[in-house]
Design a protein that fits this description.
Shape: globular
Radius of gyration: 40 Å
Strand content: 25-35%
Oligomer: single chain
Largest sheet: 11 strands, mixed
Number of strands: 67
Distance between the termini: 110 Å
Length: about 1450
């Protein structure tokens, strides 16, 4: 083997390495301990980053690979020589090597008798990359090792090969597990850096292939590597036998630990009392740093001193866990403050120079929680100190947060440190030296220089870079204390740095800080926790006795240690025995259509848009016909087959009996889905009051719905919202017109009403669609007034005997239905004639044939080789085309011979253009002859070169034709036996068809049927075949025992000579296409309803997929090919369920099915009593099942769903069948599972319980506001809109005062008030205790109205000193106090004035009177039993 070039050096290139050729370890005080495991791993993993343009692209999903280099063989190998393989990543687009080179061990080449030499490696390399571009490849270099005369080794590069990783579409290349052969090129991989190197490599004249030499390898995706991507950085090839810090070593496994990686168990550790000391002092260090920065600013601006200096805006500390290769998680970012400021509990801004002189340390006023630490010697905790600066002149000379909101910030890293701990139970105090200067660190940033040894600071004598001090512990039980207790303990022990007072805490965040000059100071500052409104933290609550504030030290994400140990799941908020909930949903019969003349007059005066028929005449409001009185024959005989469905939303009003526990919305929006049209999310609609409501009997008049402009103001146009749906039979499938009419007759439209500001669900309403049936009329219009109700589930629904499980018990325990309001809307249906459009092809949906014929093979022409001139006539007239116009590869090969034609391939010239160029060329030759003179023809020097070029092109064409002849013939033969069938698939509905298969041979054959998609299957059971033929009314025969199953479960059918059979197929999918089931709900408001007219022809079917079916005889020869084209279609949603559940937990629900004969779509006249029901779910990861019960027993559907992280919304569908073959569902239910952050609150009725929530900012600053579902029982601070800084953290204080005992749910949303998007969401699980009743009273009042009644009770102060008391009650609608608070002297008696409101109904009510002290703790509770007679 010719080994001439020197060995290709290890990539990254040595000049780019930070420590070229250095031994492990760094000088003391500037790095980790000499010879530490982290230092060794860190130095060995230094890599060159990708090209700068690649890094600026948005990151894609990483692709993981496993490459096994098996053996190297060929004539160029020398017997007994040692060889080594090296693998590097290369970007061919930018001629850039990146990552780090992997090296194999040395192997000796050996040759067997009469065989070529071979070097066996069998080494696996694992790596992952997110640069999914066709230009990304892996370069393998072959290196030979020889001995010099002095005995040292010399590495010589012998050749290299290139392995492409991605295809032309940036997808992972089609990789098979079989071995591949890599051809090698002469020379070194540095040839790829040559500027004349061009792709593709096979056609590059500068690369020469090594004959009879190759490398055998395999390359395949390796999904298990994605589970450890947080431990292994991208673009770093590693060996399978290499130990990755954080993974368990695999003993005895030759494939290595990366084949099936197993993570080591993490250990949670806490860092407390963290402080940073900078020498000689904090003031002198910052002054020197600011002077240097100001000088650098003036130098870059080439300006004279202007008097403006630099000031410190913020001091940050990045803390993260590093395993020597990369950060395990994004480092947490915490804000440091000077010690003096922390001691006096100052503001969040930067103190003045005088304040800084008092304290010479930076302290962290909260603890650091690291849950990703692993007891491995290569794991270390990295600290990076970062300063944020701004100009003092533009900031007005003040370094206060928020004084220069629009100013760009300048961030600089000044120090860093790393600590490799030996984790053990208990506590330890750690002191680490800080490092700086030109040293490679884990943060990959430039760091401010360290003090040199030859000089000191201007005013100090210290040479140190500073220290970081903290206390580390791994005992989690210690950290369940409150912030006030830690503060008290620190002050008693006088431990530095002190912990500040609660409520003003710099909270760490797990989101990495954004970098760059484009970040404004407003994004860096942390807003005060109390931005407005009454604070929930009263003064004087800092003592240990009164500490009731849960702060960061008591992690809210951790469960109660008494009920959870280790990694156990939290208890679900319901009992193990699932009480079934009713599946009947909302009652659509509660709509009121009879309106008074006064109500109709008010609606007409409001100015809603008129609904016009096809003659542009107004449609009168009519009363719907009696239920079940429609005639299907009358609808089908209607000449106006086109239906224009109009939904007009008019007004929304409060219910007269509605509860006052929730806030009436200011704006609303609606979500629903009509038929199989895409789901609709309407724009925000503002509620505008009018004089008198449409419903005169309502206590609160209904408010008009008005659209909202982009600036938040109500629109001045016509009120209401009108949507139109065009249902044209031309766009319906075969027989779908009858389905649509039955849908209108039997189904209801469910509408969800949402609060447009809080994004909380107001309620749901249902309206029957039967009034939309015109029954021969030109147009119909009806008005409806719908009850908007919401369903509330209690966390713990106790089962009382067998009452909840008896037949017909559709009203389970623990479920409350509350009516919130009434929605006014108009339904209209305008008929249109269905006229065929001239020149329009018939819709493919109209084909009723279920039989797919087999092609005869005559007249099939390969696509692209012929151009039909008269497709409409019976004769086939075609014109031949040039090979260059047909085959792009041949055109590219011909262009590669002509360097000047590489820029862009010219278009195929027409005959006229070619004739014109030929005439121009002849004219040029004639003029050249005339200019030469003397009648002598000039010599044409260009013709020999042109003839030679044409000869070369002909040789290329001839070679290309010989190369592609077999493939072209095979493709033509395949097209001759291929039949295409289009299937319009609907979720859960089976599409049945038969394929006519004929044996073209004169001998018998056993045909094997291969299908490449699991959703398409052959019907093997003759009973199922017969069932589908009865449904489709097919008259073809059914053959018993037609198929035979092979060992691989592929069906076979025996065919006699020239015999024809029909193969039954069934396509059925249970997976919802994302393009069809677009998400709807409160995650954000869409613009889907801005389009006024929706059509089924434009309803956007999902992505089309193709399925190949092959019918093969012995030897794998196909006799027929079936190509099934699947076009997904939207489906009908019959009912919608919404569940709110804690995040990352399982939802277990049992839904009771109503009696089968009440379900719409159930076949009439079924024999054998109640049929058995079957269910299927669209998500295979969800457990959905039903069990057959005895005769007369109800059936329940059991669901078990894994919830995701908050605020994720999981959407899935459940199809219900009554036939065992699952032909068509009778019902399709839609489920939404809202995953919320869970917060367990233990409280007492009538007593205020305070807690705090941690808000984490998004990458951009937002104006947010907190909204709650029960504002009378839950109050927040800030109670208005406030600014959430980018990547910052802030406390949201919450006060809970429940009114009734037991368990319940309260929802809390954090909403962006500008974009109306949901930022965060919480689920508060309340466990309310009943207080002790100290006194009981009884009173009788008349029912049915009146003025109420005034009463008095007395209360004696049991304390010797004066006390202030507050009064509250659980029924503020029935009881009001004369004074909400009173002060009484010690031992004195005070008279409390009560006023009882009248009740409209008779009965008995228990009203509690809570007397609380000045801290809102319950002192006494009185019970008043009121008898309304």
């Amino acid at each position: 083997m010719g080994c001439g070039a020197p060995a290709f050096p290890q990539l990254p290139v040595p000049s780019l390495l930070p420590y070229p050729g250095s031994a492990p370890g760094t000088p003391a005080g500037t790095g980790p301990p000499r010879g530490s495991e982290w230092e060794r791993v860190f130095r060995q993993s230094l890599a060159v980053p990708p090209h700068g343009r690649r890094r600026r692209l948005p990151p894609a999903r990483p692709a993981a690979f496993c490459c096994v280099l098996k053996h190297l063989g060929g004539a160029a190998l020398s017997q007994g020589a040692e060889y080594q393989l090296r693998l590097s990543l290369f970007d061919a687009t930018y001629h850039h090597f990146f990552g780090r080179t992997w090296r194999s061990s040395l192997r000796v080449a050996r040759a067997a008798p009469s065989c070529l030499a071979k070097a066996v490696f069998n080494e696996a390399i694992y790596f992952h990359t997110s640069l999914n571009h066709p230009g990304i490849a892996a370069v393998v270099e072959v290196v030979a090792t020889t001995k010099k005369e002095d005995g040292s080794s010399q590495h010589l590069s012998c050749g290299f090969g290139v392995i492409p990783l991605f295809g032309s579409g940036s997808e992972v290349k089609d990789l098979a597990a079989k071995d591949r052969v890599l051809k090698l090129y002469h020379g070194t991989p540095r040839a790829l850096l040559h500027p004349r190197f061009q792709e593709p490599m096979e056609k590059n004249k500068y690369l020469t292939v090594m004959e009879k030499s190759h490398l055998q390898y395999t390359l395949k995706p390796h999904q298990p590597l994605e589970t450890i991507s947080h431990l292994l950085p991208e673009n770093l090839p590693v060996s399978g036998l290499q130990n990755i810090p954080g993974l368990l070593p695999v003993c005895g496994d030759t494939s290595g630990g990366l084949q099936k990686p197993q993570l080591m168990k993490p250990v949670t550790c806490y860092l407390e009392r963290l402080s940073v000391c900078l020498y000689p002092s904090l003031e002198e260090f910052e002054e020197e740093l600011l002077d240097l920065l100001n000088s650098d600013r003036l130098l870059q601006a080439n300006a004279a001193p202007d008097g403006d200096g630099m000031v410190v805006r913020e001091r940050r500390l990045h803390v993260g866990v590093h395993n020597g290769l990369c950060f395990v998680q994004a480092p947490q970012v915490a804000v440091l403050v000077p010690e003096a400021e922390a001691a006096r509990g100052g503001c969040m801004g930067v103190p003045s120079s005088g304040a800084r002189a008092a304290g010479q340390a930076l302290v962290l006023r909260s603890r650091i929680h690291l849950s990703e630490m692993v007891p491995h010697p290569a794991f270390g905790i990295c600290f990076q100190l970062e300063y944020v600066f701004c100009s003092a002149g533009r900031a007005g000379g003040k370094a206060l947060a928020g004084s220069a909101r629009s100013e760009a910030a300048d961030m600089r890293s000044v120090r860093w440190a790393l600590w490799s701990p030996e984790l053990a139970a208990g506590e330890a105090d750690v002191v680490l030296p800080l490092r700086g200067g030109a040293r490679r660190g884990p943060c990959q940033t430039l760091v401010y220089r360290a003090p040199p040894g030859s000089r000191s600071s201007r005013k100090g004598k210290h040479m140190e870079s500073g220290t970081v001090r903290f206390r580390v512990s791994t005992d989690s039980e210690e950290h369940v204390v409150t912030a006030a207790e830690s503060l008290c303990k620190d002050r008693d022990e006088l431990v530095k740095p002190p912990t500040p007072a609660p409520g003003l805490v710099a909270l760490p965040t797990t989101v990495a800080s954004p970098r760059g000059p484009g970040l404004s100071v407003s994004q860096l500052s942390v807003s005060p926790p109390r931005a407005g409104g009454r604070s929930l933290v009263p003064p004087g609550r800092g003592s240990q006795r009164d500490s009731g504030i849960t702060h960061l030290e008591a992690d809210l994400s951790l469960p109660d240690p008494e009920h959870c140990a280790g990694d156990q799941l939290r208890a679900l908020p319901f009992t193990p025995l699932q009480v079934p909930i009713a599946a009947v949903g909302l009652q659509a019969g509660s709509s009121h259509t009879v309106l008074s003349r006064a109500s109709l007059a008010r609606l007409h005066a409001a100015g809603f848009p008129e609904i016009l028929d096809r003659n542009q005449e107004p449609v009168e409001i009519s009363e719907p016909a009696e239920p079940a009185s429609f005639s299907l024959q009358l609808e089908e005989a209607d000449p106006l087959q086109g239906n224009e469905i109009i939904l007009q939303f008019l007004a929304f009003g409060r219910d007269a009996q509605g509860s006052g526990e929730w806030t009436w919305p200011r704006t609303i929006f609606l979500t629903f889905q009509f038929y199989r049209f895409p789901p609709v999310t309407t724009p925000r609609l503002q509620l505008v009051s009018m004089e008198g409501g449409p419903g005169s009997r309502l206590a609160v008049p209904a408010q008009l719905l008005v659209r909202v402009n982009k600036d938040g103001t109500p629109s001045t146009g016509l009120p209401g919202l009108q949507l139109k749906y065009m249902v044209d039979p031309a766009f319906l499938r075969a027989g779908e017109q009858r389905w649509f009419l039955r849908y209108l007759a039997e189904h209801s439209l469910q509408i969800d009403i949402w609060d447009g500001d809080s994004l909380l669900l107001v309620g749901s309403a249902a309206v029957k669609l039967e009034p939309l049936l015109r029954q021969g009329r030109a147009a119909v219009r009806t008005h409806h007034e719908l009850e908007v109700a919401t369903t509330e589930y209690e966390p713990d629904a106790t089962v009382m005997g067998q009452e909840a499980l008896r037949h017909g018990a559709l009203r389970p325990l623990g479920v409350h239905v509350v009516v919130r309001g009434r929605l006014h809307l108009c339904l209209a249906n305008v008929g249109h004639p269905c006229e065929d459009t001239p020149g329009q092809l018939p819709s493919p949906l109209l084909s009723r044939s279920r039989i797919v014929p087999m092609p005869d093979g005559a007249g099939n022409v390969p696509a692209g080789s012929w151009v039909s001139l008269n497709a409409a006539s019976g004769a086939r007239v075609s014109r031949a085309r040039r090979l260059v116009d047909v085959d792009g590869e041949l055109a590219a090969a011909l262009r590669s011979r002509c360097p000047e034609a590489r820029v862009a391939p010219p278009a195929a010239p027409s005959e006229a253009a070619a004739a014109r160029r030929r005439k121009l060329r002849c004219m040029a030759l004639v003029r050249q002859q005339e200019d030469a003179g003397g009648g002598r023809m000039p010599q044409l020097t260009g013709w020999p070169e042109q003839r030679a070029r044409h000869a070369r092109d002909l040789q290329i064409i001839d070679a290309y034709r010989e190369h592609t002849k077999a493939e072209s013939i095979s493709q033509m033969l395949s097209q001759a036996i291929t039949v295409t069938r289009t299937v319009h698939a609907v979720l859960g509905t089976a599409e049945f068809f038969e394929f006519t298969l004929k044996n073209p041979y004169g001998i018998q054959h056993t045909v094997t049927i291969e299908v490449d998609h699991p959703e398409l299957s052959v019907i093997l059971d003759p009973r199922e075949w017969r069932h589908f033929k009865e449904l489709t009314k097919s008259v073809t025969p059914v053959e018993e025992e037609m198929f035979h199953l092979r060992d691989d479960l592929r069906p076979q059918v025996y065919l006699r000579p020239n015999e024809t059979v029909r193969i039954p197929f069934k396509y059925q999918t249970f997976s919802a296409d994302p393009a069809v089931v677009a998400a709807q709900g409160p995650a954000g408001l869409g613009a889907g309803a801005d389009t006024a007219i929706h059509s089924l022809g434009k309803s956007g079917a999902g992505q089309t997929k193709h399925i190949q079916v092959s019918f093969q005889v012995s030897g794998g020869k196909p006799i027929a090919l079936l190509r099934v084209k699947v076009e997904p279609q939207p489906h009908v949603v019959d009912q919608t369920f919404r569940f709110y559940h804690p995040e990352l937990t399982f939802l277990k629900k049992t839904i009771r099915l109503p009696p089968w004969h009440t379900l719409p779509g159930t076949p009439v006249g079924m024999h054998g009593g109640e049929p058995e029901m079957y269910v299927r779910c669209s998500d295979p990861d969800i457990i959905c099942e039903t069990k057959p019960m005895g005769p007369g027993e109800p059936q329940d559907i059991f669901l078990k769903v894994a919830g995701g992280p908050s605020p994720q919304i999981k959407k899935f569908f459940v199809a219900i069948y009554t036939d065992p073959w699952l032909a068509a569902p009778i019902h399709i239910w839609q489920f939404y599972l809202h995953s919320l952050q869970r917060l367990d609150v233990s409280c007492t009725t009538g007593q205020l319980t305070r807690l705090s929530l941690l808000l984490r900012g998004t990458p951009a600053p937002r104006r947010v506001q907190a909204f709650t579902s029960h504002p009378q029982e839950l109050e927040v601070d800030p109670d208005g809109a406030f600014l959430l800084p980018a990547n910052g953290i802030q406390d949201l204080y919450v006060g809970v005062r429940p009114r009734r005992p037991g368990g319940r749910f309260i929802y809390l949303n954090l909403v962006d008030v500008e974009s109306h998007q949901l930022v965060s969401s919480w689920l508060l699980c309340l466990a309310c205790r009943q207080p002790l009743i100290s006194k009981a009273f009884e009173i009788s009042l008349p029912a049915g109205g009146g003025r109420g009644c005034n009463k008095r009770i007395t209360y004696t102060n049991p304390y010797p000193s004066p006390r202030l008391y507050f009064l509250c009650t659980n029924r503020p609608d029935l009881l009001q106090f004369k004074e909400d608070s009173f002060e009484v002297a010690g031992g004195e008696v005070y008279t409390i004035g009560l006023r009882f409101a009248p009740s409209q109904s008779t009965g008995e009510e228990e009203i509690l009177i809570h007397i609380n002290d000045h801290e809102d703790k319950n002192e006494e509770t009185f019970c008043v039993k009121v008898l309304y007679q």
